[in-house]
TrEMBL record, chain A:
Domain comment quoted from the record: The DELLA motif is required for its GA-induced degradation.
Organism in which the protein naturally occurs: Trapa incisa
Motif residue range(s): VHIID: 268-272
Official protein name in the record: DELLA protein
Region (VHIID): 237-302
Keywords: Gibberellin signaling pathway, Nucleus, Transcription, Transcription regulation, Ubl conjugation
UniProt record similarity statement: Belongs to the GRAS family. DELLA subfamily.
Physiological role: Transcriptional regulator that acts as a repressor of the gibberellin (GA) signaling pathway. Probably acts by participating in large multiprotein complexes that repress transcription of GA-inducible genes.
Entries under SMART domains matching the protein: DELLA (SM01129)
Region (SAW): 450-525
From TrEMBL, chain B:
The protein, known as: Alpha/beta hydrolase fold-3 domain-containing protein
Major location (coarse): nucleus
Gene3D superfamilies xrefs: alpha/beta hydrolase
The entry's keywords: Gibberellin signaling pathway, Hydrolase, Nucleus, Receptor
InterPro entries: AB_hydrolase_3, AB_hydrolase_fold, Carboxylest/Gibb_receptor, Lipase_GDXG_HIS_AS, Lipase_GDXG_put_SER_AS
Any one cellular-component term (Gene Ontology): cytoplasm
GO MF annotation list: gibberellin binding; hydrolase activity
Stated family: Belongs to the 'GDXG' lipolytic enzyme family.
GO aspect biological process, one term: positive regulation of gibberellic acid mediated signaling pathway
Start and end residues of each Alpha/beta hydrolase fold-3 domain: 114-331
Localization annotation: Nucleus
Pfam families per record: Abhydrolase_3 (PF07859)
Length: 546, 360
């Protein structure tokens, strides 16, 4: 088409960094695709090449593109088209080895030619096949995205008058609390408790209103919530794990990414920021056992709170996992690190070996580090970066519960948890499992509503903010591919209720209920180049032995 | 495939802006991957590749949106509203993030409510697909309407008549919402229109028939490059096959995926005025007036024009907007004249003045 437009293509040169206000084609951005205006001609040309290649390839090769190839970050059109082009070229050069460039660790069957449908035979004689000269893909650096519009609440339409009145009352009460007018707020709590009797508490806002009224009244009275002892928390966590797909999704997705990152390494080490009952790890151990070429030596370091009454819960969990590993012939070593708070963990405690491939796994933990100044998140991210991990898997609640204004936080939480409770209602009818799962969530609600300062640890922030933090801390995204997406979709099918959905969003996966994203999973790797800026003053203490 | 690939590429590139060409070609190639020759569809990969956006109750560009799930049907509708003027009484009354859903849209004037069915040949896309979310927002902005986008069930997992059932359920939901009413006291009701592109246009027709038969008032139908077809091959299909992003073969695939198994394209869902269709003259006065938009480079145009003919032969009011140099999907990006022509036409179609003229 336009020979003049190919002047910068195919050189393999890294494009020099461009300013943050980059020239993305605004209209394509509105359609969900990130393409620089200056790259339009290039993308067009690549699309043409791709079409030619698809037209002239045998149908089983083309279907391989759909069935066995792992796709990454479809928003980045240039690299998506490039990856398909190179898949096709590879298949042309090695017609007997169709699935070799798939980077998935799961054993995918070699692709068989589809049943021949006469309608679908492309009638191109084999000697006319175009050999596509695969050009070097452009720099893989996607431009930093413009800040997204604040994605906030989902409104559920209230069908009943009482329901609407209750929501009004909750908001008003929260506003009174924010203003410091606790006397009036308390009176409103009584009114709301009465209103509760006349609405449907089976679903929607009615379901969670009770918990929010309770949390508000505790805050007003100054009682706070009685923190549950850790082992109780773990039991509730376990029920939450069983009755909804959220944690399973988190574990599945993280494990898939870790498995892919560990490919080719003989010594691997996983650091789990919150071991709990170690529910995430049997699946990874088993997957590693089945790895073509044999399993690596796996070390697992589990962080958790110190156990009361002389027990060593961490060690017990570790022993259980060791048994799993033994049963599938995976060489395994476990180490427990007891710490009541994540910020108390020092990197030397983790005993990371420079020769091993390291994965750092954080399922809904890092938000606890976003407390008041001096907030520990940056120094923790910094020492994680310093360990030079192959991958950091991050799963967090996809919502902003860390706003400074109480009313804002309250409103956000009200709609977030009503959606979560709705989904639980649909997914699990078994008692007492459901009630225990709900209690787990109730603890979170209480923490968000009743506490301030260091005691408020449930400081959830959405993926967009985590992206910023991780980018600043010297990480770059490791895109979760269509394989992980497919596995997540399959997981959802096990929960026999329609309504859960998984979405791909710039290399990350988000699990939601009826198109409202609720948790987000992402993966990160250390950016090449020098470590980020020096730590702020005072943080040097983290590097000194006590 | 008709014509050599290179010729087709040259052709389509000539008539659309480059970013439109990139967008639609990307869809074309991705969709080619997703359709399997045995009639099944790679839904997982389709969902992975589809760019989606969440709803947002915070106004962006003067439009806010939220999702509603009808518990009895599990059907999701995304509602788009014009944000209240900032600093006005309405804005002050609604605390941040919370939308007041008790009062009607207006007590003084008529606000049209457009029930929108996204395209995708019955198989692709969702109400929360970025391209359709953006389109609905533009409809609100340009036409001053409220839009409700319906997330109907798709083929091949859900064949005929699921999409029509879902459309009908959505229409009933919309017309029964007090907060979608507008107009003065004597005339307060939901002023509802149906609109859709491609398969969405087809759904509009069939839902409008159901509505007319049930006595539910729909003020107008807006069919944008509607998806119709038939067993016989038409001249436009031969002439444009493969030239402007679409092939006859892919059209056939989608009909085979939507229609009941074993059926052919003369099934009335596909060919409402064909040999197995029926005249609608018994619905004169009940079936809404129609605006049918036909892109001059769409290979389906002969069927779309036949549809307009069929409406007129039944004694129904149908306006044809024929856009000579437009390809399919011209309305996804506001970078061409056809887009603005379309918005103007829709705006005047749903404007109350037209409505009252019609009644007079």
């Amino acid at each position: 088409m336009g020979p003049s437009s190919t002047s910068h293509a195919g050189t393999g040169k890294l494009i020099p960094p461009f300013p943050p206000q980059t020239q993305l084609d605004g209209l394509l951005a509105g359609a969900g695709y990130k393409v620089r205006s200056s790259d339009l001609h290039l993308v067009a040309q690549r699309l043409e090449s791709l079409e030619s290649a698809m037209v002239s390839s045998p149908s089983h090769v083309v279907s391989h593109l759909a069935s066995d190839t792992v796709h990454y970050n479809p928003a980045d059109l240039v690299s998506w088209v490039d990856s398909l082009l190179s898949e096709l070229t590879h298949s042309h050069h090695h017609p007997s080895n169709p699935s070799s460039s798939s980077s998935s660790s799961s054993t995918s069957p070699p692709s068989r030619p589809l049943p021949v449908d006469l309608d679908d035979l492309f009638s191109v004689p084999s000697d006319a096949i175009n050999w596509v000269q695969s050009e070097m893909p452009l720099s893989q650096q996607p431009p930093p995205p413009p800040p997204p519009p604040q994605q906030l609440t989902v409104v559920t339409t209230m069908e009943e008058d009482s329901g609407i009145r209750l929501v009004h009352a909750l908001m008003t009460c929260a506003e009174l609390v924010q203003r410091g007018d606790l006397h009036l707020a308390g009176a409103l709590v009584d009114e709301m408790t009465a209103l509760l009797t006349s609405i449907n508490t089976e679903c929607g806002i009615g379901k969670v209103a009770g918990y929010f009224i309770d949390a508000l009244s505790r805050r007003i009275v100054g009682a706070g919530s009685v923190p549950a002892p850790p082992h109780e928390t773990e039991i509730l966590y376990h029920h939450f794990y069983e009755t909804s797909p959220y944690l399973k999704f988190a574990h599945f997705t993280a494990n898939q990414a870790i498995l892919e990152a560990f490919e080719g390494y003989d010594c691997v080490h996983v650091i789990d920021f919150s071991l709990m009952h170690g529910l995430q790890w049997p699946a990874l151990i088993q997957a590693l056992a089945l790895r073509p070429g044999g399993p690596p030596l796996l070390r697992l370091t589990g962080i958790g709170p110190p156990s009361p009454d002389g027990r060593d819960t961490l060690r017990e969990i570790g022993l259980g996992l060791a048994e799993v590993a033994r049963s599938v012939n995976v060489r395994f070593a476990f180490r427990g690190v007891a710490a009541s708070r994540l910020e108390d963990v020092k990197p030397w405690m983790l005993q990371v070996n420079p020769n091993e491939a390291l994965a750092v796994n954080s399922i809904m933990q890092l938000h606890k580090l976003l407390g008041p100044d001096p907030t520990p998140i940056e120094s923790v991210l910094s020492w994680i970066r310093g360990l030079n991990p192959k991958i950091v898997t991050l799963v967090e609640q996809e919502v902003n519960h860390n706003q400074t204004g109480f009313l804002d936080r309250f409103t956000e939480a009200l709609y977030y948890y009503s959606t979560v409770f709705d989904s639980l209602e649909a997914a699990c009818q078994i008692q007492p499992d459901k009630a225990l799962a709900e209690m787990y969530l109730q603890m979170e609600i209480c923490n968000i509503v009743c506490y301030e300062g260091a005691a408020r640890v449930e400081r959830h922030e959405p993926l967009a903010k985590w992206r910023d933090r991780f980018n600043r801390a010297g990480f770059r995204p490791l895109h979760l591919g269509s394989n992980a997406f497919k596995q997540a979709s399959m997981l959802l099918m096990l929960f026999s209720t329609e309504g859960y959905s998984v979405e791909e969003n710039e290399g990350c996966l988000r699990l939601g209920w009826h198109s409202r994203p609720l948790i987000a999973a992402s993966a990160w790797q250390a950016s090449p180049g020098p470590l980020p800026l020096p730590l702020p003053m005072g943080a040097d203490d983290y590097w000194n032995d006590d | 495939m008709a014509g050599s690939n290179e010729v087709n590429v040259n052709e389509s590139k000539r008539v659309v802006p480059l970013n439109t060409w990139v967008l639609i070609s990307n869809f074309k190639l991705a969709y080619n991957l997703l359709r399997r020759s045995d009639g099944t569809f790679n839904r997982d990969l389709a969902e992975y590749l589809d760019r989606k956006v969440p709803a947002n109750t915070i106004p962006v560009g003067g439009v806010l949106s939220f999702d509603h799930v009808d518990r009895s049907t599990g059907l999701l509708n995304r509602v788009y509203l014009r944000a209240p003027e900032s600093g006005g009484q309405a804005a002050a009354a609604a605390p941040w993030g919370f939308k007041e859903l008790e009062k009607p849209l207006s007590c003084t004037s008529v606000v049209p409510v457009i029930v929108f069915f996204h395209g995708g040949s019955f198989t692709h896309s969702s109400a929360n697909s970025a391209i359709y979310d953006t389109l609905c927002r533009r409809l609100v902005t340009f036409c001053g309407a409220t839009v409700v986008s319906v997330n109907y069930r798709r083929s091949p997992e859900h064949r005929y008549p699921c999409a029509y059932d879902d459309g009908w359920a959505a229409l009933k939901w919309v017309t029964s919402r007090p907060w979608l009413h507008s107009g003065t006291e004597n005339n307060s009701k939901v002023h509802v229109y149906l609109a859709g592109d491609s398969s969405g246009g087809n759904i509009c027709h069939h839902v409008a028939v159901r509505a007319a038969e049930a006595g539910v008032e729909v003020l107008g139908n807006i069919l944008l490059q509607p998806m119709f077809g038939g067993q016989k091959r038409t001249e436009s299909e031969a002439r444009f096959d493969g030239k402007y992003f679409v092939t006859v073969r892919d059209r056939d695939w989608y009909w085979r995926a939507y229609l009941p198994e074993g059926e052919d394209r003369d099934h009335p869902a596909c060919n409402p005025f064909g040999p197995r269709g029926r005249s609608l003259d018994d619905l004169v006065g009940k079936f809404p007036r129609s605006l049918v938009v036909v892109p001059g480079l769409d290979l389906v145009q002969d069927w779309q024009l036949a549809y307009v003919e069929g409406l007129r032969k039944s004694g129904l009011d149908a306006k044809l907007l024929y856009l000579k140099e437009a390809t399919i999907g011209f309305f996804f990006l506001p970078n061409n004249d056809h887009f603005y022509t379309l918005m103007e036409e829709i705006k005047s179609f749903v404007s109350p003045r037209c409505d009252s003229l019609q009644k007079a």
